[in-house]
């Protein structure tokens, strides 16, 4: 606080800062006659300082500068503000309809194809019709305003490869346009299920808003448009939708926030796999390898029912122990039931789907993250020799049960560290596993006797495959 004890140097400094304004000391009454409290004095000084500093920095106009800042935050309506919610939903629907009208429809795409074909430039490359840049620009002028964004030098350069005449393939360009239109159509379609309007789909939505789930609704309403799902019973729809949705959330929501960005859905291949079911002539092999196909969904759900021996709709640890080849270690299964969501010690179908997705996709970072969390018992963020030994002991015990000579842990430990090559020679992090490209092998060695046996006998298996013979764990 400024008072009479301040020397002349301090007063001059203030005068220098405030230019022509008098120092605060000169505005005060002598201390002997000032009966105000310290708080009152401090308040006055603060008020005067603010006033003079404001004038020194630009006068009274500076208080209005906030009026020139554009608004960047708009509060979302609360759940009880029904009218505002309805207004927002309606405005979003109108906006999406306008965006949809800006896209090329089937007739416009057909006209574009005719224009491209009409302006092709000989000679053809194989069976590919080609077009030069000059003809490309002419088509762009005739194609209409909706097509302008496709007829740019950047797009042309992106599709230009090794043609000696500097041309691009008409088919490649048309496929590029089709892909872009499809992506925008799909984004608009997904956005219709984005209740919050924030660019993501949620796993669960408040009953006050919709009473159901965003992505589940999308897939449920997509089923009738997919010929490959025509044979599904309607009673199985809810299980199919749950099976399909879990793959999206398992891989695209690693932090388990309950929501995924629409951009991430469009960027991954899952939507392509799902929409592949529109092909009425999809091969049996493609269906079996497609998680979203009817045979695949029925397989996963059928396995769940077969494991559920007491038919209570849930899986106990003992029931889950028969999963796959039945060679998962009890130590690993203990960790599954410690870390994963269970109900009175039993696993529901949703949790089971995460378990299956992790074990069937062990090369994927999201699956490795799932398994790593189970192996990292103390949540240290790394696996040390103790953790590896703890899980491998269960493999050694299973080997004894099968009449096999247990393998030395020291040998296995050295092999694991050689495969992973971690930054710290004594610790293996999740990132080390991902970077090594050997995460699936390492985790299989630690949690599954059949996985370890496959690794130990990899050379024999390769020889047998070349000879056309097979072997399994029971034959050893």
From TrEMBL:
UniProt KW keywords: Calcium, Cytoplasm, Metal-binding, Nucleus, Repeat
Gene Ontology MF terms: calcium ion binding
Keyword flag Metal-binding: yes
Domain EF-hand as annotated: residue spans: 363-398
Main location (coarse class): cytoplasm
Record organism: Electrophorus voltai
Record's subcellular location: Cytoplasm; Nucleus
Keyword Calcium: yes
Cellular component, GO, one term: centrosome
Protein name as annotated: Serine/threonine-protein phosphatase 2A regulatory subunit B'' subunit gamma
Transmembrane annotation, as ranges: none
GO BP annotation list: B cell homeostasis; cortical cytoskeleton organization; microtubule cytoskeleton organization; positive regulation of B cell differentiation; regulation of dephosphorylation; T cell homeostasis
CDD domains for the chain: PPP2R3C (cd21505)
């Amino acid at each position: 606080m400024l008072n009479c004890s301040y020397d002349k140097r301090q007063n001059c400094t203030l005068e220098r800062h405030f230019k022509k304004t008098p120092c605060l000391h000169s505005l005060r009454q002598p201390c002997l006659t000032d009966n105000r409290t310290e708080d009152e004095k401090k308040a006055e000084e603060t008020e005067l300082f603010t006033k003079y500093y404001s004038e020194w920095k630009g006068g009274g106009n500076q208080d209005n500068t906030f009026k020139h800042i554009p608004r960047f935050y708009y509060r979302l309506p609360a759940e009880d503000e029904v009218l505002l919610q309805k207004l927002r939903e309606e405005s979003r629907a109108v906006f999406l309809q306008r965006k949809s009208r800006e896209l090329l429809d089937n007739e416009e795409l057909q006209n574009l194809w005719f224009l491209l074909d009409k302006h092709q430039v000989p000679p053809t490359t194989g069976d590919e019709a080609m077009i030069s840049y000059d003809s490309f620009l002419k088509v762009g002028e005739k194609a209409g305003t909706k097509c302008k964004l496709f007829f740019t030098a950047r797009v042309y350069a992106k599709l230009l490869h090794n043609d000696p005449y500097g041309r691009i393939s008409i088919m490649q360009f048309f496929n590029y346009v089709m892909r872009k239109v499809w992506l925008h159509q799909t984004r608009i379609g997904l956005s219709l299920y984005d209740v919050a309007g924030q660019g993501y789909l949620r796993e669960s939505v408040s009953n006050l808003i919709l009473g159901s789930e965003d992505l589940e609704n999308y897939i449920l309403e997509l089923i009738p448009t997919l010929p490959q799902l025509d044979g599904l019973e309607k009673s199985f729809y809810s299980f199919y939708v749950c099976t399909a949705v879990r793959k999206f959330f398992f891989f695209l929501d690693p932090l388990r926030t309950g929501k995924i960005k629409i951009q991430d859905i469009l960027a991954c291949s899952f939507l392509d796999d799902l929409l592949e079911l529109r092909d009425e002539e999809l091969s049996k092999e493609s269906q079996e390898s497609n998680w979203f196909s009817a045979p695949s969904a029925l397989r996963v759900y059928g396995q769940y029912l077969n494991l559920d021996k007491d038919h209570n709709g849930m899986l106990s640890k003992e029931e889950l122990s028969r999963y796959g080849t039945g060679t998962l270690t009890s130590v690993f299964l203990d960790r599954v039931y410690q870390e994963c969501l269970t109900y009175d010690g039993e696993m529901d179908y949703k949790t089971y789907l995460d378990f299956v997705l992790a074990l069937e996709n062990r090369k994927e970072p999201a699956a490795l993250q799932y398994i790593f969390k189970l192996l990292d018992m103390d949540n240290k963020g790394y696996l040390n020799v103790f953790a590896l030994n703890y899980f491998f002991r269960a493999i050694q015990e299973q080997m004894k049960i099968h009449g096999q000579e247990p393998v030395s842990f020291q040998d296995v430990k050295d092999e694991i560290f050689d495969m992973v090559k971690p930054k710290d020679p004594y610790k293996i992090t999740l990132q080390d596993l991902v970077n090594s490209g050997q995460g699936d092998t390492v985790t299989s060695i630690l949690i599954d006797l059949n996985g370890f046996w496959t690794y130990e006998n990899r050379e024999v298996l390769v020889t047998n495959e070349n000879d056309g013979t097979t072997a399994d764990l029971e034959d050893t």
